[in-house]
Please model this.
Amino acid sequence: MTATTSRRQKPLRHYVGRVALHGALLSLGFIFMLPFLWSISTALKPFTELFTPNPKFLPGNVTLDNYRTVLEQSDFGRYYVNSIVVTVARTVGQVAIAAVAAFAFSNLRFPGRNVIFFVLLAGLMVPDQVLIVPRFIIMRELGWFNTYQGLIVPLIFSSFGAFMLRQYFLGISRDFQEAATIEGANPFQVFWQIYLPLARPALAAFGFLAFLASWNEFLWGLTVTNSADMRVIPVGLALLQGQYFTNNAVLLAAANLATIPLFLAFLFFQKHLIEGITLGGVK
Amino acid sequence: MTTATTPTYRRPRGRSYASTTARWGFLMVAPLVIGFTVFFLIALAASFVLSFTQWTLPATPSWIGTRNYQEIWGDAAFRTALRNTFAIAVPLIIIRLILALLLAVALNSKIRFRGFYRLIFFLPVLTMPVAIGRIWQWLFDPGFGPINAGLGRLGLPQPEWLLYPGTATVAVVIVLLWSSVGYDMIIYLSGLQGIPKDLYDAASVDGANGWRRFRDVTVPLLSPTIFFLSVIGIIGALQVFDLVYVMTRVETTNRLPTAVYYIYDTGFADRQMGYATALAWVLLAIILVFTLIQFALQRRWVNYA
Model:
């Protein structure tokens, strides 16, 4: 402070403004992080420290019992496996199907191309709850209720992904393609050997968005399963209450286990993800 | 965003080459188109037909004409669900758009640690809504949660937040705000990158202070982004489901049923499939109307360069 008083007015005002801004951002940021921090610390508390009208932020005695209870005494381990299987399959399926279609929409000329593309885009406007009953019935007819294919297959067709990747493919110079075509490559080879490697940032961004949406997806998982064996994490976590409503720390341990993998994946992909979200969000 | 692109693969090799290309084109869109047809187009048509039937599983559906839609008109529970939904959506969207804009402007300046701040405000966006519900349910716990403990220390009333529609609405809006403001912030930030710096310089030369620059440069130039966020924000907010499923359901009744919750409950708890699809179509119509109103109003305030 004393160093700045001797300077002119503008730097001082600037300095004060910056401090105020950091102060505001830090307090708001702290409030934003508090639910996570509280959840992490509560999950480490023993049962006896939970039910007090004046809860402390830090646990008096740190215990891993709540995590142990989730993994050993509930079906949460099974939910975890289900979620990983289903999420990986949906993500790979969505990226593959959308990428192939996006290439055709951006680079191949075929009758009806623009009409088909438009219909796919229009489909994005219809919310899931309109489709959920017929989809449920299709699953029953196919015998896919309570199965992995029932959880996976209806959710691997992403017109959003085809749209996003098409926009990216349109930005890739055509010179490569012309050259490869003269060499006698067929369209799929051009796609596979030239466009796919070049589109890696867009594929990573869409892949992460698909992964995120799938990992967090609730409505379909709730609808297409009813046995504990086939529950995915969000559904399991929503229904865990019945069994463990007496111990909230156990629920919070489960909630933490459900979110932490995504945070790690995000930190890993951060740059691509932000690009991807804005790619899809701003026209 | 035009769909027409210049044709490629038109090397001068005659018609057979173009038709080979077309064949590859069909082949490559086939997986998406087939899946979309089965799980979207057919499902959509079936949903429309079903909305004119009475169908309580496991019986077979019977055609009842428009009776479902007439019944919805007088359905008090649906009206309550709609009221709850709007009571959440309207304050949520307004606060969210403003708060996110302020954050984005602050974090677009050359401030230290801005990457860190952006990360903090964005992390809740990544979090599973069901997990969010679980965490905040505990924070809002009337007897043992930190929120009421804090209120008690300040001598303020300690409501049973999630048991009554009024306070539950406040709680749900707070949680949705927390979990969605970071998304809007990121979209705003990318919109801000597109505003040329010399416009601010010109405004400064003309003597505009910080507030004037914000009001006369930032907001008008960002208005397409604000419009986009308010359209998708309302569409999303009218479909709130996961969070209220977890947070406000006590035993088997929900203290704050929203429209989608009511549709789900009607279809899969009461097993009235026909009525549930009719409800879903009514909600779709409501969402569509609000979206169209927004598009109609955009000419009044959105600036396109």
The radius of gyration of chain A is 25 Å. Chain A touches chain B through 100 residues (CB under 8 Å). Residues 1-8 of chain A have pLDDT under 50 and may be disordered. DSSP finds 15 helices and no strands in chain A.
